[in-house]
Write the structure tokens for this entry.
Amino acid sequence: CLFFDGHVEMVSCRRAMQGDQRAQSAPNGSLWSKNTGFGANGYYGGPAGRVDEATPAGADAHAQGIAAGEALFRAWAGERGVVLRFGGLYRRGRGPLSALAKRGAPPLGPPDRTLALIHYDDAAEATWCALHHPAPQPVYVGVTPPCPTRRDFYTAACVVLGLDLAWALALDPSLSGVGD
């Protein structure tokens, strides 16, 4: 099961566990194996700098909702539970580069916040590995390192796409001359 929104996680997690309890009494057993994914971007709130499995959840309501969903899952799954905290998923045509190409300018947001991303294929591979590992860790963070700041990502992306850097210069005048 993959959950990305704090509200959806709590509701979906509870409903899945209720359905699982009903299914456990059936001959084939459980609906869940041992794995659920929670978004790293939401869990950590809007971190600046490196994040890992030990980094605490962010303080905002969304991050706390995700942390509560994880706690609910852990209480239910026990030691067989594995949490995967994926960064923002991207592929050709979906993700921040594609959105930037369509909009022509980056979305507003803190420039020094870490932009943690992972490709769909890498997330699928990580999920498969966690499901088939004989002794998995309780939590994994799935991102493509290094995770740039929003400023670094969108500055480089604007240069690649040939977009105006006026927004970046307003945030950081030291970027004058980048892309020339």
